[in-house]
Each structure stands twice: as structure tokens, then as C-alpha cells.
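A quick aside before the break. I want you to see a complete sequence-to-structure record at least once, exactly as it would be stored in a machine-readable document. Don't worry about memorizing anything.
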Amino acid sequence: MGSLFSKQFERRKNIKAEKKTLCDLNENCGESYPGSDYRPADRKNWMAGLGVDKVYINKIVWPGTHDSATNKIGIPFITRPFAQCQSLSVYQQLVKGTRVLDIRVNENRRVCHGVLTTYGIDVVIGDIKKFLSETQSEVIILEIRTEFGHQDPPEFEKYLEEQLGEYLIHQDEHVFGKTIAELLPKRIICVWKPSKSPRPQSGSPFWNAGHLKDNWIDTDLPSTKFDSNLKHLSEQPPASSRKFFYRVENTVTPQPDNPIVCVKPVTNRIHGYARLFITQCFTKGCADRLQIFSTDFIDEDFVDACVGLTQARVEGAC
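That is the input. The structure line, written in C-alpha cells, reads:
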């Protein structure tokens, strides 16, 4: 018992120290970078607002959500706090400015997070199609993966193509060097990551796991995650030259050996430091590598942070 108490005391001490590290860094370095003052007039149409003939796919800093479709997962006040990473529906996220969705499914085509499930993938598809019908030139990266420990949904590629075929941007590495205007009316880059099924090949309506990469570190320590994100990002080629998307996630996650296991209070340890992270990317000389930037519980300021840097790139300010 004493050993367990000592271990928990040490963990709380480490968390407190890491929170202070980020707080001090923020006070000393600030959150100013090219485009940091920019605020899109219309977040629902922010890509259009930048000029679709000027916005190249490899210049975009894509605001994304982690575990995007978990707003209604589990049982309210019982299991939901342990798995909910977003409070908004997929449609509401897109309206707010989100352009990368992280969707996990099981063999029954239901969205899940670990062992907990929520609504079917048809709800996600419906939200996406509603958003696309209300806009004209916003492009979405839709990542769908079979959740760990589950089987691939039967005939899932066929289902997705039936539902989204008119919008799908086919797998082609030349896409990275094109403007949004050159891709329209196609508007979805769908990355399908099955568990066992063959991965999509060149020319397919779907992109494969090799086209969306990250270096996930499972920790609830905010400064550890922040530093890991910077380290791995600095090891990537510049976004302008690579033929895949690279994601950084501004999140920390609950750990089973810590008393605090609800997502929101844990991820809040790093949530407010998205702009600091972008600032540090410039300080460390790796801002040109930043591409997909995702978060839990996305808000307008996070979207603006990404859109502002995108605007600066489009205008040649960085």
C-alpha cells in the first residue's frame, strides 16, 4: 500500500512539474508566429476564403480532431468521460473549421474507441455529406481505421465508395502539389486503414496508411508529449517535398495506473499550448514540416492557429 501511495505521489509530482515547464515556456517565448494574428471571417469556408487557386495541398496546416466521432460514446456520466475526446458532432466540427477526421470502426460498422461503441458510420457519412452540400470548395482528409482488436467491416470499401464516390480524390501522389481548385469538384482524401484487408493501391479511390503517418506516444505527461512531438516532427522532410501527410497530435491521454482517467482533465494539461507548439516549431527550425495538427475537444482558437499559419504560407510570409 505504501509503495502504491509513493508511486502515485511521484506521478503527481511529475505531472505538476511538466505543467509548470510548459507554462514557463509559454511565458518566456509567447505565441507569436507568421499568421498568428489572422482570424478567418468564415471558419465554415476558410479554405475558400484563402483563395482555392492559391492554396496548395502541401501548404495547408490542417486542423484535425483526435477520435473525432466520440461525442456520444458510452453511457453519459458513467463510461463516456473515459472515452469521449470530442463534445461536438462531426458536422459541428467541420463547420467550426476542422478538416481532418479520425474515425475508428468495428466489424459492425459502428464507431468505437477501445471497447466502447457509439453510433454507426452512416451518421458520420451523413454529417460529412451535409457539410459538403453546404460548402463549395472545402477539402477534407477522412481517416477511417479498423479499431485495434476488431475485424474489418465486410465490404467496407464498396460501402464507402457507394456513399462518397462523387467526392473522393483518388490516390495519386501528384495531389500534394496541386491547388484546391485543381482538385474540385472532388473534395475528400479518404485514408482507409484496415486491420487485415489489402491496403488500397495507387489509382484507388482510397489512400493507404503510408499516406498518413504519425509518431504516437501514449503518455499523460504534457511536456513529455510536447517534446516528443517536436522531436519527431523535426525528423520529417518538409511538407512541400513529401508524398504523405504527417500528423502531430496536441493531446495527452489517461493512463491506467493514474487516479485521473477521464479524458478531458488529462488532455487539458496540453490543450492550451497549440500556439506555443507552433511558435516552438519556428524556434527549432521545423515549422515547414508542420502539416496535420490534431487535438481533443477542438475549439475556434485551435482552428485559427492552423488557418493563420496556412494563410502566412499562402501569402509567402514564411
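Two observations worth writing down. The longest strand covers residues 140-146. Residues 61 and 306 are 5 Å apart (CA to CA). We'll return to this after the break.
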